[in-house]
Amino acid sequence: HLASSLPLPSERDHLRPRIDLIVFVIDIKSKYSLKNVQASLAYVDVRFFLGKVCFLVTGVGRVNSCSVEMNAIWKLGEDYCSPVILCELELEGIRVTTAQRLIRMLQICAGCVPGVSALYFSLLMRNSASD
């Protein structure tokens, strides 16, 4: 589902699906992509940053055509306490693995994995990324 801002207005709440995970996609080949994500973050309710937001960075396999500094992306993840996932969507194997990883994150954020909370999982993701 797409939305221009979060949280959504409360009217018609009973008809709207619950939001369990927000994935911001940043194309490393486009400065506009990063600026668009940065502008969109202002519309996200603070409660979502408690384990229900991640940044998916695409195009990382083409270092020579990057328009976005990786330091800016790592800082974004750090500033918003959210994991950063790097991928190359042009390669089928990596695309499938990334999709499976996002589905697993969604299952955790939706509360479908007993004993693992979204906040705890997000903390594990951030620690592993900084190692």
Automatic annotation (TrEMBL):
It is found in: Chromosome, Centromere; Nucleus. InterPro entries: Centromere_Cenp-M, P-loop_NTPase. Keywords: Centromere, Chromosome, Nucleus. GO terms for cellular component: chromosome, centromeric region; nucleus. Its main location: nucleus. It holds the Pfam family CENP-M. This is Centromere protein M.
